[in-house]
Amino acid sequence: MTTNTNAHANPTTPTLMKAVRQDTLGGPEVLGEVETVRPQAGIGQILVAVHAAGVNPTDWKHRAFGLFLGEPPFTLGWDVSGVVEAVGLGVSLFQPGDEVFGMLPYPYGAGSHAEYVAGPARAFVPKPAALSHVEAGALPLVSLTAWQALVDNADVRPGQRVLIHAAAGGVGHVAVQIAKARGAYVIGTASAAKHDFVRGLGADEVVDYRTTDVSEEVRDIDVVLDPLGGEERLRSLKTLRPGGILVSILPHGLEEVPGRAAELGVRATAMLVEHDQAGMKAIADLAASGKLRVHVSGTYPLAEAAKAHAEGETGRVTGKLVLTVRP
């Protein structure tokens, strides 16, 4: 494959790349590797040669139901770690050859499950040398979600009590570490088999949600991070002390939540993750300092994206799954 570092090149014959695309909604089998035209860096954009790209629950939900993207065809993926191939007009922050990682604008910027992807320069930051591309490719979406929930929305402060559901999952295991880095006392929920893993992340307490009614046993919480939704979200409001806040990363099915929160004298809000260079810089700093590490439970070559989706949909993954695009 030819390399083009000229941001303004306009070859008469389009350069091709491999990407994972789907032409219909459905199960993992609808994903297939295809050859398609390689994008170019537009104004304010960089073109990244993708080395690794994380797979997240939002990927298989979009694959199956379309969600925000609607009907296919499309290429999924928001996490990116790679090397700048070209820069577009007006970009001064990066040059070809720079190692970067970041999250494409969610939801409409999807497309990182490919050999190349173009995105806004300010969706990316330099990749810490201490991180491999696989580790960096696993971090952006889950870490930005956790950062925006705990820091931007809840303003977690030292000494506060933070309850993190699904603490061994993609968002959860990163959120535990971010909350600890902010000086919080962290309680995580997880199945018994994952308690040692969650404690190893720094959690002060771990509760087995399968044998314990968390809403009855946990009290005086300042912040709840809710990646689950449903009835668990309503029950979790009971764990909050007056003035506490529940932040949900699933902005659906909230009809009963505001009223119940008001009755209890607590707050509740819901969010969708956004690309955010300041947040990515903070995450890069935590990772470089060793205060944030990502657990990658499995890697798959780009051509086996369907297998990664099938594994992710089991609901048993600890940490993250990653597609490896280049060595």
Structure, described:
With 327 residues, this protein is an alpha/beta fold. It has two domains: 16-139 and 294-324, Alpha-Beta Complex (Quinone Oxidoreductase, Chain A, domain 1), CATH 3.90.180; 142-270, Rossmann fold. 27% of the residues lie in helices and 27% in strands. It has ten helices and 15 strands. The protein has helices spanning 57-65, 133-138, 140-153, 170-181, 195-200, 214-217, 230-236, 257-264, 277-289, 305-312, and strands at 16-21, 32-37, 45-55, 79-87, 99-103, 116-120, 124-126, 161-164, 185-190, 205-208, 221-226, 240-248, 267-270, 296-301, 320-324. Strands 3, 4, 5, 6, 7, 14 and 15 form a seven-stranded mixed sheet that branches. A six-stranded parallel sheet has the order 10-9-8-11-12-13, with helices on both faces. Helix 3 crosses helix 4. Residues 1-11 have low confidence and may be disordered.
Characteristics:
327 residues; alpha/beta; Quinone Oxidoreductase, Chain A, domain 1; Rossmann fold; 2 domains; seven-stranded mixed β-sheet; six-stranded parallel β-sheet; 15 strands; globular; disordered N terminus
Could you name the CATH topology of the largest domain? Quinone Oxidoreductase, Chain A, domain 1
DSSP summary, beta strand count = 15
Question: Which CATH-level-2 architecture of the largest domain?
Answer: Alpha-Beta Complex
Domain unit count: 2
What would CATH call the homologous superfamily of the largest domain?
Medium-chain alcohol dehydrogenases, catalytic domain
What sort of overall outline do the alpha carbons produce when their principal axes are compared? globular
* N- to C-terminal distance: 15 Å
The run of helices and strands is: EEEHEEEEHHEHEHEHEHEHEHEHE
**Major sheet, described briefly?**
7 strands, mixed
Strand content: 25-35%
Mean pLDDT: 95
Structural class: alpha/beta
Radius of gyration: 20 Å
